Amino acid sequence: MSTILKLEHIYKSFPGVKALDDMQIELERGEIHAVCGENGAGKSTLMKVITGVYKADSGNMYLNGEKITVNEPNDAYSKGIAIIFQETSLFKDLTVLENMFMGHEPVKKIGPISNIDYAAEEAKATEIFNFLGISGISFDDKIDNLGVAAKQMVEIAKALTYDAEVLIFDEPTAALTEKEVRSLFETIQRLKERGVSMLYISHRMEEIFEITDRVTVIRDGSFIKTAKTSEVTEQQLIAWMVGREMVGELYCKADVEIGEPVLEVKGLTKPGLLENIDFTLRRGEILGFAGLAGAGRTESAECICGLMKRYTADIKLFGKPFKAKNYRHAIDNGLVYLSEDRKKYGLVVPMSVKENLTMSILYQISKGTFIDFKTENQIVEKYMKDLSVKAPDKDFVVENLSGGNQQKVLLAKALCAKPKILILDEPTRGVDVGAKAEIYKIIKQLSEQGISIIMISSEMPELLGMSDRVVVIKEGRKVGEVERKDFSQEKVLGMAL
Prior knowledge:
Elements: E1 3-14, E2 17-28, E3 32-36, H1 43-50, E4 58-63, E5 66-68, H2 73-78, E6 81-84, H3 96-100, E7 107-110, E8 113-116, H4 118-132, H5 148-161, E9 166-170, H6 178-193, E10 197-201, H7 205-211, E11 214-219, E12 222-228, H8 234-242, E13 261-270, E14 274-282, E15 286-290, H9 297-304, E16 312-317, E17 320-321, H10 327-332, E18 335-338, H11 342-346, H12 353-358, E19 366-367, E20 370-371, H13 373-386, H14 403-416, E21 421-425, H15 433-448, E22 452-456, H16 460-466, E23 469-474, E24 477-483, H17 489-496
Parallel strand pairs: 3-10, 3-11, 6-9, 9-10, 15-22, 15-23, 18-21, 21-22
Antiparallel strand pairs: 1-2, 1-4, 4-5, 7-8, 11-12, 13-14, 13-16, 16-17, 19-20, 23-24
Helix pairs in contact: 4-5
């Protein structure tokens, strides 16, 4: 193999933060190369340097042996370097074809006038779609009408209009179903066979070991190690990422005395989504919800918490009939929900840690129309300390925190409301293994305090590692329930499938 992309002695600092410290990485032609590290390790900063979003303070970058400078993203595209973000960067009101050739449309001249050559666009797009095996997407489709997986395929197709030699995938499977993940991996293999080189960022260990050839680990902005994926164990990889062995640390489920029923749901039905779901949650229990994406797990939680209307159910909360009029009514009765999409429904990321934490309890810490800032600061400092939120201070803007710390701020915001029942929807999505371990410890402590927890998760090891029981939902129906003593991935997945 020959080296197609090489970075050496890369330094990048922001005010008060050294993001990259003598970073290095080499990508071989036609390889899939994983980049691993905890949230805040510098992975995203490194990718932004490669693609011209950031300019390195110093260091060198080589493409096909030639020293290059990438001044901005379009410059990266023109050099054959493209990135596929977890959240796509397409123009949602434009068509598939318009997005694919945006900024580099082929033109033809008719006399002195230059016009877009739509026939050339369609010919090139057809060739790319055929190569990628894309079907069910029309060139005239508006991006806003496409699903997540379809948008990703358009992003990949767009990159190939530039004849990209280097593709970067940043958490590409975070919002995909298992079937969509399989389809994406098939596409990645086609790209590899074509000689395209790929950097692949993911917190999902099973993906790294399934599809990558080599792995580079970075920690605290510094290069740690590069190795062949086939010669590394998962435990070694985790140890390199977090800087310590984590044997026995990750899942820390405690034996807690399970108490009386606190939430009883019978006949939960919402036409077209849910049908006759029954379950009971007990004091101090962690009740897992398993199922494929779209099975109805999130919708069940949203109905119970008053976030979804027009459903029927017989619900008892602490032994008394209950139906949430709205989410505020649910919170006031001790029922708190953490959304799977923390940026869209959980946090206001341009605001500070303090503002996010106390947003839902301002009415409790206000005197008339004035906020009691002394009480507010005491509450914020307590939860930042209890949950080990790593931020310079309480006024730090949330969008500048790592994913793991954003998730802990979301959890702290929920705890400020003093929940008796906590519904956690994908509580560790998009966070690294070190942050996961910290979140699991918090969940364990809450259970020990008698708080009852419903955990919705697509990560089977997480679900089985932390739950007392697991309810399995398929296509809007409850298809089974498994006790901890009978846990196995095969059993739960068999029910879900």
